[in-house]
Write a structure and sequence with these properties.
Number of domains: 2
Largest sheet: 4 strands, antiparallel
Radius of gyration: 22 Å
Number of helices: 10
Mean pLDDT: 77
Number of strands: 9
Oligomer: single chain
CATH topology of the largest domain: Arc Repressor Mutant, subunit A
CATH architecture of the largest domain: Orthogonal Bundle
Order of helices and strands: HEEHEHHEEHEHHEEHHEH
Low-confidence stretches: 1-11, 97-101, 231-238
Length: 238
């Protein structure tokens, strides 16, 4: 880039203590470095706090995402967070750790799918959908993986705990938001739904809400301790 071209770059307002405004190229470099240095997906709020005032963080990150799109490492968005990940088509060249986590059981996969599509959902509702009892061990496995969390307590008799997925769940499965989960036609095309499907069968569209629903109350540390939900245990489903 020539000096003239560099001078043509848009400038942002300087923060307190800075003597000169910053070019968008420099802003992008800082944002890139912040995401690269983090072991976890970086929230846009974190980036906004560390970039010059007036920065359109979303626009900056989208520019970087486009720049990395053809490369071996991609910049991806998960909810309102950003992370660098190996390009999906190159995952086969990455050597898997010999100590790779044990694959989920069929029961755990079923429970995870129900939580992902039906959240917020209670354990009783999961069992009603599956038609079998769900052990605490199955939920423990999903929580230890960081993919499922306790959301709140339903405002119904007994005040059952509600469950939902996490940002880590979206990140692991390469989803930007819950609405990116495959629909009925996609599941059929992938061979994940076969045989005769019951009349009226439908895949619900997950809601992209982190806030509590109208019929949920916040869950407290005391709630978790009283319910014994802080200590992993129990047996997995058969």
């Amino acid at each position: 880039m020539t000096p003239d071209e560099d001078n043509d770059q848009p400038m942002l307002e300087a923060d307190e203590g800075e003597t000169e405004p910053m070019s968008l190229i420099e802003v992008e470099r800082i944002a890139e470095a912040l995401v690269f240095a983090s072991a976890e997906p970086v929230p846009e709020a974190f980036l906004s706090e560390r970039l010059p005032r007036g920065t359109d963080v979303g626009a900056v990150m989208r520019r970087l995402m486009e720049a990395y799109a053809p490369r071996g490492v991609n910049l991806i968005r998960t909810g309102d967070r950003w992370a660098f990940r190996t390009a999906a088509d190159l995952s086969f060249v990455i050597r898997k750790d010999e100590n790779e986590a044990k694959k989920l059981s069929r029961a755990a996969l079923e429970v995870l799918a129900i939580i992902a599509y039906h959240q917020p959902v209670t354990r009783a509702e999961i069992e009603e959908i599956r038609g079998v009892q769900t052990s605490k061990g199955t939920l423990d496995v999903l929580m230890e993986a960081g993919w499922v969390r306790f959301r709140g307590r339903r405002r119904t008799p007994g005040r059952p705990v509600t469950l939902g997925t996490t940002v880590e769940f979206l990140d692991h499965f390469g989803l930007e938001e819950l609405r990116d989960l495959p629909g009925l036609d996609e599941l059929k095309g992938a061979g994940l739904l076969s045989g005769r499907i019951p009349p009226g069968f439908a895949i619900p569209i997950p809601q992209n809400v982190d806030d509590l629903a109208e019929d949920e109350d916040p869950i407290t540390q005391l709630d978790l301790e009283e319910l014994g939900l802080l200590t992993p245990g129990g047996e997995a489903d058969e």
